[in-house]
Amino acid sequence: MADVEIGAGKSARRGYGLDEIAIVPSRRTRDASEVDIGWRLDAYKLELPFLASPSDAVVSPSTASTIGSLGGLGALNLEGLWTRYEDPAPLLAEIARLDPRTATPRLQQIYAEPVKPTLVLERIGEIRSSGAIACGALRPQRAQELADTLLKAELDLLVIQGTVVSAEHVAKTGEPLNLKTFIRQLDIPIVVGGCSSFQTALHLMRTGAVGVLVGAGAAGTGTTRSVLGIGSPEATAIADAAGARTRHLEETGVYVQVIADASLRRGGDIAKAIACGADAVMLGEALARASDSAAPGASWGTAAWHRTLPRGGVEPVTPSGTIQEILIGPGREGDGELNLFGALRASMAMCGAATIREFQRSEIVVVPPVDPTERAGLASR
Fold first, then answer.
1. Which CATH architecture describes the domain 47-169+176-319?
2. pTM of the model
3. 10-12 and 21-24 strand pairing
């Protein structure tokens, strides 16, 4: 891809967001009932290709169980309210009622309560006892500290997630987490991210991670791009990571799952992310709209309560359906926000793809972004 000159001293690649591309149907179509949208993450075969975002607004031990029963995977934030408080329900309800303009100081105050290892053990146990895959998420800064607790709790999968995670972190104060060493020593499959470039994705894959999250500051409740200036258009970032996956597969024979962590709200967003090369997606904002989410009526990300540099805030959301209706339907509106994976299945069928791997080879074209007013008009037809 040719560089674009920004000025005499700087050039840049042209990047593309998911709203700037479209999937081209193939000459061969397929019956939707013959489409397999399942995926495998390490030893776990999942019916739906998604991981629920580790946001307190989305995942609780109860919703992790619900998501698991529907064929998905819910990641509980092991630094969230469920591991800081015995009963976080009143606080979740309070956050959902906060005025978004003044919510951040109260959010910081609520999250100032320390994480309790005993509650980490208890919450993981609750998920395991429900029969769901026990998946938890931590920032790199806390992973080493809680490693023994995770092993004792018999966590099935760990997500190490930050706004940006690298395989090589330089620090003069303290000992940074060595991802490669940590992953090899901890007897738990680990997903790491986010990243948004070919080289970073390749380096993360070389640590031994089973999956890589692609995206930096893309979530709807985050403001990383405006606060830090960091980000990458989703379609380009996913395609770059998919290229890194191919390189890593050629080098090692190991296939690492690419998980798109962007602001995905509609079935078409998910279909385009997978057509760009993702094996699965991470859903946050879409599930925050569920009437039975962990905190119905509000959405906030894990960076919203940062002690010194919060990014994002509490956003009020109008519930559009249950978790089941959002994931597998039935849909009642034409806006694409319900039956997300029914939409993915239909898109794959129109492209003649029987599996996710086949769908990743679909033809993509660049199109003008859809105007929000046009999208609203289309949804009302």
1. Alpha-Beta Barrel (3.20)
2. 0.91
3. unpaired
